[in-house]
Amino acid sequence: MRSRRVPATFEIVLSTLLFKGGKMSALNQIQHIVVLMLENRSFDSMLGKLYPKSSDFDGLSGSETNFDAAGVAYPVHNSAGTSDATMSIPAPDPGESWTDINMQLFGTSAPQSGAKPDMSGFVKNYQAQAAHSPGVYDPGSVMHYFTPEQVPVISKLARQFAVCDRWFASAPCQTWPNRFFVHTATANGYENNSPVHFPYRMQTIYNRIDDAQLPGGWKIYFHDVPQSITLEKLSLSLSRFRLFDEFLTDAKTGDLPAYSFIEPRYFADVSLPNDQHPPHVVTLGEQLIADVYNAVRSGPAWTRTLLVITYDEHGGCYDHVPPPPARPPEPKRPETAFDFSRYGVRVPAVIVSPYVRLGTVLRPQSDTPFDHTSIIATLRKRFPTLGPPLTARDAVAPDLSIALTLENPDNLGPDWLDTTPYSASPADVARARIAPPNGMQAALLEFTANIQNGVTGAALEARTFIGQQMQDLSQGLNGVPDGVAKDVASSITYIKSRLGALFRTV
């Protein structure tokens, strides 16, 4: 196996030759798979400087550049320190729609058929945002990266366990399509968050877990509102949606389900968002990662747990690696714009388990990269009763068993991870609450506005909720009521009022 020494005494172990010579994975020793999916950061922006760039680690050399509309060069760069302003770069929020990402990848929003992405349009697209959105747009903001010293938690885990430099978002699209892929292995043909296309009736991996009566079942843990509730087939399982504090308890007591999916805080409400969505303060996401790791690490099920930390999409942040072609999950429908034959931009992915060798850089054994459906492929491999692939995409996705190469759970990792101190002041929260909603927040608002009767019954049963939702949606989609969508605070207040029964199930 090929390896080499790098600074900080970590050894990079390329996991492309695993299983040769009869070497087996420890996947069957795993009883709990936990996924934390954060928001809108590229691999280069978070982990591009984890190790020096080499054939063993596809990070940043420092010479990568984009040009603006006038031909001015903007190289990748770092801003020192951990101030709020630095840890919020880029600000304002970059574009992340399907046409925005096309421009970022190809330098044009309408690339020719068969064109290969050259990653040349990030700065130009960021400049274009200024034409229709308020704020001061420094063109070079999207070329910014953090150093390991600025994001010590994810960097520590990436070096202690495995970092994957070949994990791409499932599609060159916004948040919702990519989150649908991790749950259903498809976006059902929808390339943007909005307009909404209710009902979302795709088969989910959670339904497979229910059908197989998998011991331990599943839970989705959330902070303020779970985006996954937009999937109709999960609406019958409201009691499986639990507040994040329950995850901390379940992990520490060893009562985690077979599959746990964790959603961050998307809105400024009682505290600031911890999703790392630009321009939210990245340090708060670091604290969330540490909270998840510390809870699992201190629990009795640590040596039987696989933790995956990844991001739904890149959110307009620069990455230098062109996404490869992808297997479409299903045939393209005539009314849709995109056939999903291309992956999205590369995103961070860290694989954590005592069975992962120290300093692993994880790469697949074929040209097919890891993407969000690799999580579904891993679940199906670990639990064969979950059945065949959900779609053609997860049918070809590499699974994560190749990361688990230790015969025994010997890489226990640090007992506890400390985080960079950060506490939002009341003034910080107040400013965030009066900001306009971002695309993710606006789409969640749109979702709840289109459930006319809401989910407000004190003891509303799931089947009643489904009946109401289908009746409402059959009458056509509605706009957001006047006076609601003007700021983040109004949005989350309205969402919680409409989804009241969901919060009473926890």
UniProtKB/TrEMBL annotation:
User: What species was this sequence derived from?
Assistant: Rhizobium freirei PRF 81
Q: Which GO terms describe its molecular function?
A: phosphoric ester hydrolase activity
Q: Which InterPro entries match?
A: Alkaline_phosphatase_core_sf, Phosphoesterase
Q: Name one Pfam family in it.
A: Phosphoesterase
Q: Kindly provide the name given to this protein in its UniProt entry.
A: Phosphoesterase family protein
Q: Where is the signal peptide?
A: none
Q: Which UniProt keywords apply?
A: Hydrolase
According to its UniProt entry, one GO biological process term is: phospholipid catabolic process
Gene3D superfamilies membership: Alkaline Phosphatase, subunit A (3.40.720.10)
Work out whether the entry's keyword set contains Hydrolase: yes
